[in-house]
Structures are given as C-alpha cells and as structure tokens.
Here is the input.
Amino acid sequence: RYLRRTMKCRSDVNSLSHHFLLIYDSLIPPDEEKTRQKQLLSLLERLVSKEWPEARLYLYGSCANSFGVCKSDIDVCLTIQDAEIDKSEFLLKLADILQADNLQNYGFHILQALTRARVPIVKLMDPTTGISCDICINNVLAVVNTKLLRDYAQIDERLKQLAYIVKHWAKSRGVNQTYRGTLSSYAYVLMCIHFLQQRRPAILPCLQEMEPTYSVTVDDIECSYFDKVEKLCDFGSRNKETISQLVWAFFNYWAYCHDYANAVISVRSGCLISKQAKYWTRRVGNDRHLICIEDPFDTKHDLGRVVDKFSIKVLREEFERAAEIMQHDPTPWITLLEPY
Ligand code: GTP
Ligand code: MG
Here is the structure.
C-alpha cells in the first residue's frame, strides 16, 4: 500500500535544524548526573563485594551507550562465574541484602523483582538521589552490545542527534513500550544506526564487516568488530546532510519506503536482508515478525518480535504522522513531539 511513496523533501528543511539541535541539547544529561550514577555504581560495588568478592558490576543500556537522555534509570549487570546459578534466587538474595532495613547507615528501596522475565531483574531506588536502577545477572551480551552502540556513537555526532530525537519522539508518542507491543529504545537506536549506514554517501560504516580489533565470545556467540573508532571520525564527512534532513528522511523511510513484508534491517551486515533467509516468514509461538530488526550479535533474535498485528498498525500510523509533520507542519519540532 505504502511502498516507495517517497516524497520530495520540503525546501525549507535545513532551516529546521537549529530547533532540533536545541531539543537535542536540552536532553543531554548534565555532568553531575553522570557523576551521581558513577557514585551509585561504586556504592553497589562495595556492598556486593562484601557478600560475593568475585562478582563484578557493569553499566549497560543508555547510561553507558551514549544514548541516555537526562533523568534516565541506570541498568547494571552483575557478573558472577557460576554456571549453575539460579538467577531469580540470586536476585532475591541480592535485593534482601541491599534493602533499607538491612543496612545500618544506608539502604535501597526495592521497587520490584521481575524474576520470571526473559531477563530477570530487580528494580531498586537510591533514596538520597532518587536514581532508579535495574540489576540483572550475567547478561554479558547486553554489556557487549552497549559497547557497540557507544562505539558507533563516536563516529559521527549525527547518530546521537538523530537517536535522541527518535527516542524522545517514541516516548512522547507512546510507542516505546515493549509490554504493549511497541519497540524498545535499543531497537530504535539500531534503526538509526542502520539508517545512517544506508545513506549515500554513508554516514556510518558497518563495524562488524571490517577487520576485527575486538573479539569476545559470550554464550557461544562470537562478538567481534572493528572498535578503533577514533580512526573513523572523518568517515561521514562526505555526506553533508543536516539533522533536520535526516529526521525527515528517517520518518519518510519508515512511513513509505520500508518493505515490511520482506525486509530485515541488519546493523551487522550494514544492509537489508530478507526475512526468508532468516526463516522469519512465519509466526512461531508469540513471535511474529511484522517489523524485523536483527540483533547485531544474537542474530536469531528479532527485536521486532514484540510487535503484534494491532501495535504494528499503531507504529506505522505514528511513522506516517511523523513523516507528514516533517513534510508540511510549520513548527515540526513542536508538533512531532506532542504527547499522544
Ligand atoms: P532507555 O532506558 O529508554 O533510555 O534506553 P536503554 O538503551 O537503556 O534501552 P532499554 O532499556 O530498552 O535496554 C537496555 C539495554 O538492554 C540495551 O541497551 C541493550 O544493551 C539491552 N537490550 C534491550 N533489549 C534487548 C533485547 O531484546 N535483546 C538484547 N540482546 N539486548 C537488549
Ligand atoms: Mg535503560
């Protein structure tokens, strides 16, 4: 129905960049926030090491991947070398240890323990700073994909600008809720990376197709790519597109150009691949493949699996709304981000 209905971009598009950059600046977390997050991590490290001296803590997700807006929660992964560990039991014990009534001078508020989730977590809150924190166990793949996103972010600043605006749009429009069938922030950042790999000239390279300088094996998955990104800081300089052109083109692509029936976006290969090649043509259990976003390392994993036949409609209507606003609205930087 929509395929290839590409619009010619409005003539005043570049004059919109200034407004989008102001929004981007307003979302960047202040340095104090980063400092407070690090202090919280050190405190957790001290408390955890008393009980499990061999455990290590890593920040992952938006507090470590360069795509964190201000006032985000922090995601922490605790690693412990014990293959037999029961993650849920371990998390309940951890929650118990960190709780306010157990610590004399200090204590966290336990908000929730999601022990049956695909990735079990405990959610806790530091009462002095108000920072909330999700802790998971041995989710090393997430720590590695956090590094990949952070490395991409260093190559061209337009990635951060675009991803901040897309994430902000998704939150404002209610399409950043995996439990309601829309996409995670992680999925949106991958969509932005893939989109910038596809521009001509390309704004981002495909790091996993280059000679690897970093390699780890996690859960039998080999994760390797070129991570000397300081050597690539000129990579996108032949492409002169501005942030407003890119926001316009991003929504135009997802509204009118993406082939939802057949295509999978793949940051790993830097191009589109076919659903058929991945056997993602049929529904298996609850996993439908109505919008396909391949995880860069866990390539069996489709981040679009959460999207169902109702939420795909919501999502596509939101992409269309955004594309129309970017094309016609006199103040798109306001209308685009209006709460739903
Ligand atoms: P905000 O919290 O919304 O600012 O963004 P975030 O980057 O922290 O995203 P999110 O909370 O969606 O996910 C946190 C991290 O978990 C991501 O950065 C990934 O590293 C990891 N992650 C999230 N979803 C998946 C998933 O489906 N598969 C894998 N492998 N990792 C995921
Ligand atoms: Mg997060």
The first helix runs from residue 17 to 27. The beta strands are 56-60, 74-79, 109-114, 121-125, 132-137, 214-218, 221-225, 263-266, 271-274, 292-294. Residues 61-62, 73, 75 surround magnesium ion (ligand 2) (CB under 6 Å). Residues 143 and 246 are 28 Å apart (CA to CA).
